[in-house]
Amino acid sequence: MKRRIAIMVVAVFSVAGWTPLSLAETPSEKPIETVALTPTSVSTSVVADTTQMPPIAPFEAMICGEGDTIRRTDLAPLKSLSEKPDDPAAVWYDIEKKRVYFKGVFCLERGALEFIIVGDSGKNHETVVQVTSAPLDISYALLICGFPYSASYRIVQGGDGIMRRMFYGQAVDIFFEYEENGVLKRKPARNFILNAKTNDLIADVPYIFTGSRYVTDPQTGSKHFLANIERNIAAVFFDSASILNTPLNTGYDDTYYIIKEDVIPKKQTPVLVILQPAARNADPAKRNLFKDEELRDDGGGNINSESASPFLDADAPRITPKPKDDVRRQSDDLELDDLLKELDANE
Hints:
Layout: E1 30-31, E2 34-37, E3 42-47, E4 79-80, E5 91-94, E6 99-106, E7 115-119, E8 129-131, H1 135-144, E9 153-157, E10 163-167, E11 171-180, E12 183-188, E13 193-195, E14 200-201, E15 207-209, E16 214-216, E17 223-225, H2 226-230, E18 232-235, E19 244-245, E20 257-259, E21 270-277, E22 289-290, H3 336-345
Parallel strand pairs: 7-8, 18-19
Antiparallel strand pairs: 1-9, 2-3, 4-5, 5-6, 6-8, 6-21, 7-18, 9-10, 10-22, 11-12, 11-15, 11-21, 13-14, 13-20, 15-19, 16-17
């Protein structure tokens, strides 16, 4: 299952007309000079962080029951990217609460994990949940809700003197809502993921909206959304095609995570996946900011993650334009760049 992470050398989504944010939207953190990292080696160049923090979506607590019945999520009043009410591949979104919803099934009862969520025909032998929704639709819904994306962080120093990593992609919490033995449950995705080295749940750290990539067909020149090709949606083993990735240092080693067999529902159990801004966003001092020890889940193994870090310090953060909720995805083949231009044109 081991494999080398292939980082595609392609441009991160480009959108004309992006404008910088006001200083009022930036956290009270003092940027410092930091060494730029590449996916395969440490660069000797030094970059100063002059880019402002992207907008962070507001947070509203997601209620999770401890085995108790919860109220089922009502999708009816939400906007959908599908024109068919019963479309199993539909993606729903709530702009006010900044939540994205789509349906799937639990597909693995034991075994090693590289992903949390994959699409149909994806790697269901190493994931928790498989869905039929198009990855492009999921990414688009996150953009509609105003989530910034980027495979980038900068190191900043807070007023307390502590150095933190400031991620520019939206920090996202993942929840699973499902019925088991007649009881409706809603649980964080981490509840089903065990660290095989420490025998504890995966660290309680949100995922970063890294947004996947476009690749260009060398024969036709056509661009293709990589997540739609590989069907990767949320990964615990960093994948450049995936829409969401873990920022944990163990994300560069595929031997750490396995299914937590004593709590995982049976295969083919229907599940509603819910994505929303990370709970830590409720604290302005923690928004997309992580101390190094928060990102360690190796049990003291001190794995060498920095030299292979796919999060690029030198990558200029991309800020999504303010979206309009009445724009519709036209087809899976319509490039996300064009969708964003539609959003921008409708400002």
